Amino acid sequence: MTSTPSSDARVITEIDGPVAYVTLNRPDKLNGIDLDTIDELIAAATALRADRDVRAVVLQGKGRSFCAGLDFGAAFKDKKRVARFFFAGPHTVNRFQRVNQVWRELPVPVIAVVQGHCYGAGLQLVSCADFRFTTEDATWSILEAKWGLVPDMAGTVPFSELLPADVLMRLAMTGEQLSGARAAELGLATEASEDPLAAALDLVDRIVERSPDSVAATKRLVYGTRRGSLRSTYRLERRLQARMFKSRNTTIARKAGAAKETPVFGARTFG
After folding, report:
1. 2-207 is classed CATH 3.30.1330.30
2. Distance (Å, rounded) from C-alpha 10 to C-alpha 122?
3. Residue 138's closest CA among 174, 103, 173, 190?
4. Helices 35-50 and 95-105, packing angle to 10 deg
5. So what's the pLDDT on residue 5?
6. Which of 132, 152, 195, 209 is most buried (most C-beta within 10 Å)?
7. DSSP character for 114?
């Protein structure tokens, strides 16, 4: 297993074979997110995007909580830096949004594992993962309402995909707390279980049996067609399938399937 060199880092990345573990590392602050954590999360995702041998990412929090939200006290000590993070300029997203959107753009599945608190910025972060496994007794909340705010860290797009409008408005207007079990019932979480990490790794095992290129293209296809027209959806389908026809890993999958053998894929070539 390889890892980032400093255990003092706010975000630790460890790579074990095809799986990267990205861990929020402020357990004494319930992994509250400050500006340095935002920088380190973006850097971690950027590095993983360049590693074509990584097949899946597990996003987790060290200690008893996944993330209790934005650490306002630490984050707002440098108001000028906050302003720079908030300013988007000519870009679609600012840095507060980028820290979460970057996981949706990663060309491998991102699986969040939740225990304890999953509040505010933490909930927006896990909503931008592709799958969310949680303990049944974890506590989830769109907590921005408590502070008179709206979700503004890119969570509104996945929230709108996962929840009916009335349910989303209720949660975002009230900030009410949900158990992990209830979050799963509503579709906000993928699954609630006693051991969410084991459930996440079971899914990873099944995903890595498939071509890394088709997995990456499937993620692109699903997110790329959520809000598109029929014309743009079908165009994206054709474009991605054409890429798959040319992929070495597609050839490996086809030959293994014909021979009834287990495929041994090469590094990801797509994404």
Report:
1. no
2. 14
3. 190
4. 30
5. 53
6. 132
7. E
Residue 215 token pair:
């997995």
| pLDDT value, residue 4 | 53
Contact 103, 132 (CB under 8 A): no
Residue type, 156: T
Per-residue confidence (pLDDT) for residue 231, from 0 to 100: 85
The set of long-range contacts for 258-264, using a CB threshold of 8 Å and a minimum separation of 24, is 262/209, 263/209, 263/211
Sheet of 178-179, strand order: 117-119, 139-141, 178-179
> How far from 209 is each of 31, 70, 212, 230, CA to CA, in Å?
33, 37, 9, 31
Q: Residue 211: helix, strand or coil by DSSP?
A: coil
| In the chain, domain spans | 2-207, 212-259
CB 208 within 8 A of CB 266: no
Task: Please give the C-alpha separations between residue 39 and each of 12, 97, 117, in angstroms, as whole numbers.
Answer: 12, 12, 22
Q: Looking at the whole model, is its pTM more than 0.70?
A: yes
Low-confidence ranges of the chain (pLDDT < 70): 2-7
Spatial distance between the Cα atoms of 3 and 14, rounded to a whole number of angstroms? 4
CA atoms within 13 A on the CB side of 60: 21
| Helix, coil or strand: residue 142 | coil
Q: Are 59 and 13 in contact (CB under 8 A)?
A: no
Q: Residue 114 forms beta bridges with which residues?
A: 134
Asked if 23 contacts 16 with a C-beta cutoff of 8 angstroms, the reply is: no
What is the bridge-based pairing of β-strands 139-141 and 117-119?
A: parallel
Residue type for 73, please?
G
Q: Quick one: pLDDT at residue 76?
A: 84
pLDDT tens sequence across 156-185: 999 999 999 999 999 999 999 999 999 999
